């Protein structure tokens, strides 16, 4: 298994919160200004900034500031690690299902 558990853990922790998942879903459409993101939620600006900091620390989003306006973007490829990990899990589960299928075919054939 590749050694990417720290990165995977950070992304999973960041996405464990529904607010942060909603932010990621919104940013998947296009970058957004923090004030626009704030309008999506019933929370204070400091609370939203805390959520954004967690996403940024996990390398899920990036932000840039121009004057007084902070724009947040989904980092390209940020969720690829999830796809890789889930693919590895699915492959393992598929192998188990294949073995079960073979076993069931053998036992069914013996009984008939």
Question: How would you describe this structure to a colleague?
Answer:
InterPro entries: ArsR-like_HTH, HTH_ArsR_DNA-bd_dom, HTH_MetalResp_TranReg, WH-like_DNA-bd_sf, WH_DNA-bd_sf. Keywords: DNA-binding, Transcription, Transcription regulation. Residues 1-94 form the HTH arsR-type domain. One of its GO terms (molecular function) is DNA-binding transcription factor activity. Pfam families: HTH_5. By secondary structure, the protein is of the alpha+beta class. The chain has a single domain (4-109), classed as Arc Repressor Mutant, subunit A. The protein contains 5 helices and 3 strands, in the order ααβααββα. It has a 3-stranded antiparallel β-sheet with strand order 1-3-2. Strand 2 and strand 3 form a beta hairpin. Helix 1 packs antiparallel against helix 4 (45-57).
Keywords:
112 residues, alpha+beta, Arc Repressor Mutant, subunit A, 3-stranded antiparallel β-sheet, 5 helices, 3 strands, elongated, transcription, WH-like_DNA-bd_sf, WH_DNA-bd_sf
Distance between the termini: 42 Å
* Helix count, DSSP H or I runs of 4 or more residues: 5
What is the number of beta strands?
3
Broad structural category: alpha+beta
Tally of domains: 1
Helicity, as a percent range: 55-70%
The coarse silhouette is elongated
CATH H-tier superfamily: Winged helix-like DNA-binding domain superfamily/Winged helix DNA-binding domain
The secondary-structure element order is HHEHHEEH
Report the average pLDDT across residues: 90
What is the CATH first-level class name?
Answer: Mainly Alpha
CA gyration radius, whole angstroms = 21 Å
Instruction: Look up the CATH topology.
Output: Arc Repressor Mutant, subunit A
CATH architecture: Orthogonal Bundle
Per DSSP, what share of the residues sits in E-state strands of 2 or more residues?
5-15%
Describe the strand arrangement of the main beta sheet, using strand numbers.
1-3-2
């Amino acid at each position: 298994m590749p050694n990417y558990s720290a990165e995977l853990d950070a992304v999973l922790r960041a996405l464990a919160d529904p607010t942060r998942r909603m932010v990621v879903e919104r940013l998947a459409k296009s970058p957004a200004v923090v004030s626009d993101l704030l309008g999506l939620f019933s929370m204070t600006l400091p609370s939203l900034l805390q959520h954004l900091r967690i996403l940024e620390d996990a390398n899920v989003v990036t932000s840039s500031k121009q004057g007084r306006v902070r724009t947040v973007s989904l980092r390209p490829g940020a969720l690829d690690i999830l796809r890789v990990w889930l693919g590895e899990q699915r492959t393992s589960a598929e192998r188990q299902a294949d073995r079960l299928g073979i076993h069931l075919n053998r036992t069914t054939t013996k009984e008939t």
